[in-house]
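Worked problem 6 (solution included).
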Amino acid sequence: MNVEVGTMIIKEIAKENDYNISGEGFSFEIYKSTLRPKSFKVRKKDSDLLVYQWEDENGEYGTNAIYSLRSLNDVIKFATLLSIGTEIRSGRNR
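Solution. The predicted structure is:
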C-alpha cells in the first residue's frame, strides 16, 4: 500500500468531517473534542497503518490496534467510518 496516499486520504476526510488532527507524518491523532472524545491514533508500522482507539480518561491508547489498514481499500473503509460516525452522533441530538 502507498502509505503516503493512505495518510493523506484519512487526514482529508477527517478535516472535512470536523475532526481535529494533531501530530505529523505517519503518527497522528484524530479527535472531535477534548470533552467527549471520539479519538483515534494512527501510526505507520512497516507498510500498514495501525489505528488505535482512545480508551481511557487519561488519553492513553490501548496497546492493541483496533484496525490494521493494509490496502487503500481498508483506508477508504476507515475514512467512511469517520464520516458515518459524525452522522450517527449528529442524529442523536434530534
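Discussion: The chain has one domain: 3-91.
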